[in-house]
Design a protein that fits this description.
six-stranded mixed beta sheet, 24 strands, 34% helix
Length: 460
């Protein structure tokens, strides 16, 4: 096996290649004619293979890929020495990091090691460009284009066979929109099923029938599947924030959530609309609103539309993340505060700049303590706490921090094999499961392997 940074390339016997992939069309090459294994979202640097062959992805963007090199090739990167690869089949695995309290791992990217991931393309450049443009609107901030959004609403109504709404009301945030809905008179029943749920189901069925199960699965994997999970989490956070702001009494929660069920997600629907963009007009109205506005509430005679946020801050995994202010903020002041996806009180952020190891140890809330540790820096905490390594081997150094009332923090300290331009070697810290006992076991785990199977013949 071969390792270049956070990418592991493992030889695979041809008999182990799934039959449906053996002759499948691979992902398209980049502008330089290379097969891109992982792309740094910040740096633009890429782990890429030069030479004839195919790169195949079976499922989602975080699953292993298969690489076929009939004549061999070279894996290159701007910051790592090139590695020659003999001809054959390979499994390509990206490094992951442990997520506390979860069986899952999160992918590493530019913010962790200088490298990120690349999404799968459909093979149709014009379609891919359209998808990327629409998908990008899910994170758009700034004032809505009200005229364009209102025309999109009217088009969605006409497409659904409904009369255009008599009134369109604008609100500064989803919170303000819920309040506006509660004040509406004569709005009539919700028509969300007619303008959003029904058309989506019909278009999905049409594309599934036209493309076949495999074709539809490939299209969804290349578009909506890569975007929807993090977007859905953001939508849930917004809903929870609205409920918390408007729930004056416990019995108010049901009424607020009932109004939220009527919402069409506007820009956040762009995550799944990207799969249909350019493939028909049935969802054109929904897509136009998604490009130009936030959430909206469709009723027989009236529509309420929310402005988009004015600020949105996310980490490399797409989670809400900001250490010095709101991670999500709307024009009227409605805001959410978070650190790497973890909801935190606004006042809590003010304390992060003055943290000490003693204050971190004294925090009784385990989740807030994890936030403190991440902000403070595990390496700094280890140094200032006089922590001692528990294991060393050729792969790195294993450290353990015991925390009262929480699982241990276990980190592997690893050193980049390729020197920096000044001759130094960059050090990284990878969080691994608490049960880890050796550095090699920890590094192997980040690639989904046992320590006995992790034996790179070359790494850079």
């Amino acid at each position: 096996m071969y390792r270049q940074g956070d990418v592991l390339i493992v030889p695979l016997d041809e008999s182990a290649v799934p039959a449906h992939l053996a002759d499948a069309t691979g992902e398209r090459r980049d502008a330089r004619g290379r097969l891109v294994l992982a792309l740094g979202e910040v740096t633009g640097h890429a782990h890429a293979v030069q030479g004839p062959g195919r790169l195949l992805r079976e499922a989602g963007p975080l699953d292993p890929m298969l690489l076929h090199l009939p004549e061999g090739g070279r894996v290159v990167h701007e910051e790592h020495a090139a590695i020659p690869l003999p001809k054959g089949w390979y499994r390509v695995v990206r490094q992951r990091e442990y997520v506390p309290g979860s069986p899952h791992r999160r992918g590493l990217s530019d913010a962790d090691q200088g490298h990120g991931t690349t999404g799968q393309g459909s093979g149709d450049r014009e379609f891919d460009a359209a998808c990327e443009h629409l998908a990008g609107r899910r994170g758009a901030t700034g004032a809505a284009d009200r005229a364009a959004a209102e025309e999109g609403v009217r088009l969605a109504y006409r497409t659904a066979g409904l009369a255009e709404p008599e009134r369109i009301v604008w609100a500064a945030s989803p919170k303000a929109a819920v309040e506006a809905v509660e004040r509406l008179t004569g709005a009539g029943r919700s028509v969300r099923d007619g303008v959003r749920t029904g058309p989506w189901a019909e278009e999905r069925r049409r594309l599934h029938d036209a493309l076949g199960p495999a074709g539809w699965a490939g299209l969804w994997s290349a578009t909506g599947a890569q975007l929807w999970d993090t977007t859905r989490e953001l939508a849930e956070r917004i809903r929870a924030g609205v409920v918390a702001e408007l729930m004056e009494r416990p019995e108010d929660e049901f009424d607020v959530r009932l109004v939220l069920l009527d919402a069409v997600l506007g820009q956040h629907d762009a995550a799944w609309l990207a799969a249909f963009d350019g493939r028909g007009d049935r969802l054109a109205g929904l897509a136009q609103v998604a490009r130009h506005a936030g959430w909206w509430w469709p009723y027989e005679n009236a529509v309420v539309i929310s402005e988009r946020p004015v600020e949105l801050h996310r980490d490399e995994a797409g989670r809400l993340d900001r250490g010095d202010g709101p991670a999500l903020a709307f024009p009227d002041g409605f805001a959410l505060y978070a650190w790497r996806g973890m909801p935190v009180p606004a006042a809590f952020l003010d304390e992060l700049t003055s943290l000490t190891p003693a204050r971190i140890r004294a925090e009784e809330n385990a989740e807030l303590r994890r936030v403190m540790l991440e902000h403070y820096g595990y390496d700094r905490y280890l140094t200032e706490s006089d922590a001692q390594p528990v294991h060393r081997d050729e792969t790195g150094v294993l450290w353990r921090i015991a925390l009262q009332g929480d699982e241990d923090v276990v980190m592997v300290e690893v050193v980049n094999s390729t020197p920096e331009p000044d001759g130094t070697h960059r050090t990284y810290w990878l969080r691994v499961p608490p049960r880890t006992r050796t550095a090699k076991e920890g590094v192997a785990w980040t690639f989904g392997l046992g320590q006995e199977a992790y034996e790179p013949v070359r790494q850079t």
